[in-house]
Amino acid sequence: MAAIAETATAWAPRVRSILRIMTGLLFLQHGTSKYLGFPQSQMTGVDPTSLGGIAGMFELVGGVLIVIGLFTRPVAFLLSGLMAAAYWIAHAPGGFFPLLNGGELAALYCFVFLYFACAGAGPWSVDATRGKA
CA nearest 71: which of 31, 29, 113? Predict the structure, then answer.
């Protein structure tokens, strides 16, 4: 058991980097759908001045920065706030439970980004190469 714990501890920073990259890629697709039309969704072609359009710009730019791990802490903090606002504006009025109001993803992104704001990008990032991870 001790060997497993030591291995898990040794891999934890790298797994944090993998979690950051995957979270960024999944988040980025919301912005690419809204502004680049890929993948096609109900949000494709959103008005850039609407709340969804403004969020799309954060998703696009913030998603890229999270994927590469550049300015991770401040960007993640900003995106955590964006997702908290998205939850309370778009989902919470639909009911208390995230499962029922469609807000599970917004809530999860909020707390994952909050984690990155506190924990940093991990070793596989631009921030790490700059000594800022």
Answer: 113
Instruction: List Cβ neighbours of 112 (8 Å cut-off, separation of 6 or more).
Output: 19, 23
In total, how many domains does the chain have? Answer: 1
Assess contact for 72 and 127: CB atoms under 8 A: yes
Structural domain boundaries, residue 29: 2-129
Residue 89 predicted with pLDDT over 90: yes
- pLDDT tens digits, one per residue of 26-69: 999 999 999 999 999 999 999 999 999 999 999 999 999 999 99
- How far is Cα 124 from Cα 133, in angstroms, rounded to an integer? 9
- pTM for the complete prediction? 0.94
Residue 48: is the preceding peptide bond cis (ω within 30°)?
no
SS3 percent helix, strand, coil of the chain, rounded to 5, is 75, 0, 25
Task: Output DSSP code: residue 90.
Answer: I
